[in-house]
């Protein structure tokens, strides 16, 4: 009896049970359903996009990668640039803290972002999961560095100087004149009316997920397939 009990304990220690896995999946799905009851989230973010974002967020949280796990930011490049496509979610209260227009890289597309890269000098946006870094004052004023955490997909973000910053071309006035937002050199640029608020909400170690229905990314992402 004692030997059988020892074997059982060792099995539980070295092989996570299906019950534990099912419990984690149930917790994830319950959180997603709770968030999706928020009308602004439900009206602006596809359920599948929220599910992807939450999957990566929990993976990064579990490994202790997130210094600031209170917020989750989603940029949905499936949407055209004339729509709000950045959303900051309070993970404690399950509510939306901010939403904003956001620009994409000039070589990623016109009104829609369709092409993505991790290559320096490509002037394209990158997809996947990032962790926000420190703020600084540069040529665009108050800005926020972001660190790509997916090897071969976005891990050149710091080298490429991909940062969140404010830009005149990222606001509604530009849309009225040109029918779309202006485009960056790869940075997720925000309207001057929003950028400080967003940066201060998400700086210093929070999760940022940049989405697009790109099958190549979905297949390569270890965070989505963990």
Walk me through the structure.
This protein has one domain: L,D-transpeptidase catalytic domain-like (Beta Barrel), CATH 2.40.440.10. 33% of the residues lie in helices and 19% in strands. The protein has helices at residues 2-14, 18-36, 39-44, 47-62, 172-178, 195-202, 215-220, and strands at residues 71-76, 86-90, 95-100, 128-138, 141-148, 163-165, 207-211. The protein has a 7-stranded mixed sheet with strand order 3-2-1-7-4-5-6. Helix 2 crosses helix 4 (47-62). The protein is globular.
Topology:
Elements: H1 2-14, H2 18-36, H3 39-44, H4 47-62, E1 71-76, E2 86-90, E3 95-100, E4 128-138, E5 141-148, E6 163-165, H5 172-178, H6 195-202, E7 207-211, H7 215-220
Parallel strand pairs: 1-7
Antiparallel strand pairs: 1-2, 2-3, 4-5, 4-7, 5-6
Structure, briefly:
With 226 residues, the chain is of the alpha+beta class.
How far is it from the N-terminal to the C-terminal residue, by CA? 37 Å
Question: Based on the structure given, which CATH architecture is correct?
Answer: Beta Barrel
Describe the biggest sheet? 7 strands, mixed
Summarize model confidence as the mean pLDDT: 89
Stated plainly, the CATH topology is called L,D-transpeptidase catalytic domain-like
- Helix/strand/pairing category: alpha+beta
Order of helices and strands: HHHHEEEEEEHHEH
Quaternary state reads: single chain
CATH superfamily: L,D-transpeptidase catalytic domain-like
- Please report the total strand number as a whole number: 7
CATH class: Mainly Beta
Number of helices: 7
Give the CA-based shape: globular
Please indicate the percent range of residues in DSSP E strands (runs of 2 or more). Answer: 15-25%
Please compute the radius of gyration using only Cα atoms.
19 Å
Going across the biggest sheet, name each strand in turn: 3-2-1-7-4-5-6
Proportion of residues in helical segments: 25-40%
Low-confidence parts, pLDDT < 50 over ≥5 residues?
1-15
How many domains make up the coordinates? 1
